[in-house]
């Protein structure tokens, strides 16, 4: 599969008997087991990053939203703290099924254009079906690599990564590209898993040895790479508006809480 050029929307040709959106959000014990099988056993194989992503996600699109709602905490919180400037452009990098667009509520209509960018065709099909179902005229699902995507306008007011930065091997490149496309004064919003550095910047949370190592190893089996460097990198390139470091439940693991952060940073106006 090749990467489509920027602003080429996902193929809309779909004739589903069950809506992919309801399949993604309907959870059951068996859909959870299927997802866990993909996460623990199958993991994600292939020669390229895109092939590994598609291999990992193609069997999970159904039940994805339901399972991830219980694993990926803080997304609504992030969106509640982001501005929706009238006529603005929002780019969601690693958008998956496009569920984040729901988090704006009515404020989604403020944007002139919204780009839901992802490399997984299976998840983008759900995003495209969601766009059609909701009748969102200003939203497009785009098959593209987050490290090189640029909206047709050339600039964005709001860029987000929600639990995608840890899945992008060239995360520096993805953050640099996000900052490049932001207008001066525009905001970057991120929610993701992480571990702290052994010696984090002053004011940031410090995780103990077991936390730092356990979660890195546990997530790495699914090609999710937790880093102590994401936050310090963001903090050194943007003006921090919001930083909240927390922990959240993991389905079927009652005694542990995985660390995640919610970050909003503003591109300096020079
Ligand atoms: C854990 S999912 C999160 C999806 C969604 N943002 C959410 O909050 O539910 C990570 C997403 O990042 C996407 N992704 C990983 N690397 C990418 C890349 N280089 N370019 C675009 N998307 C990427 C994956 O395909 C996947 O949809």
TrEMBL record:
Composition skew (Low complexity), residue ranges: 13-26
Keyword Metal-binding: no
Pfam families cross-referenced by the UniProt entry: Methyltransf_25 (PF13649)
Keywords assigned: Methyltransferase, Transferase, Ubiquinone
Bias-annotated ranges (Polar residues): 1-12
Database matches in Gene3D superfamilies: Vaccinia Virus protein VP39 (3.40.50.150)
Gene Ontology molecular-function annotations: demethylmenaquinone methyltransferase activity
Record InterPro entries: Methyltransf_25, SAM-dependent_MTases_sf
GO terms, biological process: methylation
Primary enzyme class: transferase
Residue ranges of the region described as Disordered: 1-26
Methyltransferase domain ranges (all copies): 91-186
EC number of this enzyme: 2.1.1.163
Protein's recorded name: Ubiquinone/menaquinone biosynthesis C-methyltransferase UbiE
Species of origin: Planctopirus ephydatiae
């Amino acid at each position: 599969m090749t990467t489509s050029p920027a602003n080429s929307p996902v193929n809309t040709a779909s004739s589903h008997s069950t809506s992919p959106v309801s399949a993604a959000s309907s959870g059951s014990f068996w859909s959870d087991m299927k997802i866990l099988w993909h996460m623990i056993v199958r993991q994600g194989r292939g020669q390229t990053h895109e092939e590994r992503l598609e291999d990992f996600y193609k069997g999970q699109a159904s039940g994805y939203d339901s399972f991830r709602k219980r694993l990926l905490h803080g997304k609504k919180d992030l969106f509640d703290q982001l501005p929706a400037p009238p006529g603005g452009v929002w780019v969601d990098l690693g958008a998956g099924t496009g569920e984040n667009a729901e988090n704006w509520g009515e404020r989604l209509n403020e944007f002139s254009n919204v780009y839901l960018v992802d490399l997984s065709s299976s998840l983008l099909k759900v995003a495209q079906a969601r766009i059609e179902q909701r009748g969102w005229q200003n939203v497009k699902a785009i098959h593209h690599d987050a490290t090189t995507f640029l909206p047709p306008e050339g600039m964005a007011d709001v860029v987000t990564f929600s639990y995608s930065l840890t899945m992008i091997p060239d995360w520096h490149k993805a953050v640099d590209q996000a900052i490049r496309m932001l207008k001066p004064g525009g905001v970057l919003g991120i929610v993701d898993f992480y571990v702290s550095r052994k010696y984090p910047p002053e004011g940031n949370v410090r995780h103990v040895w077991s936390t730092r190592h356990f979660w890195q190893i546990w997530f790495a089996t699914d090609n999710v790479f937790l880093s102590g460097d994401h936050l310090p990198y963001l903090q050194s390139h943007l003006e921090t508006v919001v930083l909240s470091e927390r922990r959240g439940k993991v389905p079927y693991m009652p005694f542990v809480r995985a660390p995640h952060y919610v970050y909003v940073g503003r591109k300096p106006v020079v």
